[in-house]
Write a structure and sequence with these properties.
heterodimer; A: about 350 residues; mainly alpha; about 65% helix; about 0% strand; B: about 230 residues; two-stranded antiparallel sheet; about 5% strand; rod-shaped
């Protein structure tokens, strides 16, 4: 029952909630970002990060550094923290934490399948996979020729198996099929996660419903914008939208027929939470849309920490760390390319 | 005296004739020198103009490439590193979508120089190009065909336009499809930032061909100036 979590939550979740709140305190601040934005080289960035929680992960990296190395090592830190929380968690928190990684699992599956289609070496592809999305039989994905084989040989024993029912065909895998598969899987995953959180009830259900609805709406907008000018039909586009969220169902109907960014804007401005996002953009512009969405996402995730005794803090922390890693990636790229004037184009401050 | 006087007019007239002839020769030599000088000046100016163009174009190329690389980083930031990385590049045999033709042309002075021509998105330009046709036909029959999911919104545009610009719009539509096809290695639903990066690198390629032509002109003008200087010293 909502409101009585305070009586029982700490029995099983108290320790881990304290751990995740401690981790949250280690997120980089605006002062850290200002120092990083003034770095001249990647070694300077490494030096500044050595004073943060990323220090132990970067200290042994030899020069010259590469931006991908910085991102990989920072991601390792997130993975270590996640694994520690997962091994300490009991049900239903452990299932909740596993749900957080299914998105990365889907990305890894698509990476391996696409790379195999392009005749890349499997080992090379495995190195590019996100560590949070790894599973035992992932290398076997390279053998599958179509989605039926993909499911039968590999994915039937993974948590993604239930999501495959909507996209199993015997057609050979090609670029369009893989893209449809990716988005269909992600849609099924989000809907399943949403239902799971609803079943948990209480503050977790309320907070996670809001966060997942935002995620679904953002996906819908991105799918719409990315499919403008492609061969994806309106019906196919509509099928990729999730069945929940603020935009469901009428916003989705309107987004499905949009042909340019201004039409997308006119649809989204009817919804007050998204009006503020699109008001930051000038007409015809979509370059800053990502940053506007990330800023709104960060705001909502920070608000999740204002309430106690719910699982939303774990989800919010993972997403905030991922945003922080994206920030570090962008800063590193701007420093490496000597384009520091553009560094604030995509950095989203968390605190 | 009278004989001398009789001889002097002849001498004087012959001297005058010789002087006139010398003056005429001098005038002709001067005119030839003047023409040669103007030709040398023209070659020198051509060399300096080419050098100026070359430096401006190199600077412009640097700006375009910087922009392209940053847009690619922005696309990677937006779509994720797992979608935009070197491992996505296709190692299957496929024909190049863009070709460069090198020919030997004569410039105004009749000197041979290399001339570079860019043929973009040649895979749809079968027949019009005249080189490498066989490979493109081979690519079309071997490669996996995109499953057709209905009319693209863009394909409606040529039907609505007037006949005068309908042909150019159909070509633009085909070029757009070829662009999207080449981006398919990163997925079919890619961020607009990746498409912008593609346009920047496409512009950079055009600029590179322009630079190659300018350099060819520059080297040709340099050779001419060098030959003239050596001729003058000899």
């Amino acid at each position: 029952m909502y409101g009585f979590e305070a009586l029982t939550f700490n029995i099983h979740g108290g320790y881990l909630e304290a751990i995740v709140r401690g981790h949250r305190a280690g997120l980089l601040t605006a002062a850290d970002y200002n120092n990083l934005c003034q770095c001249e080289t990647l070694d300077d960035i490494k030096m500044h990060l050595s004073a943060t929680e990323y220090g132990p992960y970067l200290q042994n990296e030899p020069s010259p550094l590469h931006t991908t190395t910085i991102v990989e090592k920072c991601t390792l830190k997130l993975v270590d923290e996640y694994k520690h929380m997962l091994c300490q968690a009991t049900e239903p928190l452990s299932t909740f934490l596993e749900y957080i990684t299914y998105g990365h699992m889907i990305d890894n599956v698509v990476l391996i399948v696409t790379g195999t289609l392009h005749e890349r070496d499997v080992q090379e592809l495995l190195e590019k996979c996100h560590p949070l999305g790894m599973f035992d039989s992932i290398a076997t994905l390279a053998v599958a020729q179509n989605m039926r084989e993909l499911y039968r040989l590999v994915l039937v024993d993974t948590p993604l198996a239930p999501y495959f029912s909507e996209c199993i065909t015997s057609e050979d895998l090609d670029d369009m099929n893989i893209e449809i598969m990716r988005n269909t899987l992600y849609k099924a995953y989000l809907e399943d996660f949403y239902k799971f959180c609803q079943k948990l009830g209480g503050a977790t259900s309320e907070i996670m419903s809001d966060l997942l609805a935002f995620e679904a709406d953002r996906r819908a907008v991105n799918i719409t914008i990315n499919s403008i000018g492609t061969e994806l039909t309106r019906d196919d586009r509509r099928k990729l939208y999730s069945s929940f969220g603020l935009l469901y169902p009428y916003g989705h109907e309107e987004l499905a027929v949009c042909e340019d960014i201004d039409q997308v804007r006119s649809v989204m401005e009817k919804y007050p939470p998204y009006q503020s996002i699109f008001s930051k953009l000038s007409y015809g512009e979509s370059q800053m849309l990502d940053k506007a969405f990330y800023e709104e996402e960060v705001k909502r995730h920070c608000l999740a920490f204002e309430q106690q005794f719910h699982y939303g803090v774990f989800f919010a922390y993972m997403r905030l760390r991922e945003q922080e890693i994206r920030n570090l990636m962008w800063i590193s790229e701007c420093v490496a390319q000597n384009q520091k004037s553009r560094v604030h184009d995509s950095v989203v401050f968390i605190f | 005296m009278a004989q001398q006087e009789e001889e002097d007019p002849h001498t004087q007239s012959s001297e005058i004739g010789e002087e006139e002839e010398e003056e005429e020769n001098d005038a002709q030599i001067g005119e030839r020198n003047g023409k040669r000088q103007s030709v040398e000046d023209r070659h020198a100016l051509q060399f300096l103009d080419s050098l100026d163009d070359y430096l401006i174009q190199m600077n412009s190329l640097s700006v375009i490439l910087r922009q392209g690389w940053l847009e690619l980083a922005s696309a990677r930031h937006s779509m994720g590193a797992s979608r935009v990385n070197g491992s996505m590049l296709n190692l299957k045999f496929h024909s190049a979508s863009t070709l460069v033709r090198v020919t030997q042309d004569d410039d105004d002075s009749g000197v041979e120089k290399a001339c570079f021509t860019l043929s973009k998105w040649a895979s749809f330009d079968n027949g019009k190009n005249g080189f490498g046709e066989g490979k493109f036909r081979e690519e079309k029959s071997d490669g996996p065909q995109l499953r057709h999911r209905g009319a693209s919104p863009l394909s409606e545009i040529p039907e609505k336009t007037s006949p005068e610009n309908g042909a150019s719009l159909i070509v633009d539509d085909q070029v757009q499809k070829e662009r999207l096809k080449s981006l398919r290695i990163f997925g079919t639903l890619v961020s607009p930032k990746l498409r912008t990066a593609q346009l920047s690198f496409e512009t950079a390629l055009e600029k590179l061909v322009e630079i190659a032509n300018t350099r060819s002109t520059l080297l040709s003008a340099f050779d001419q100036v060098k030959d003239e200087l050596e001729g003058t010293k000899g």
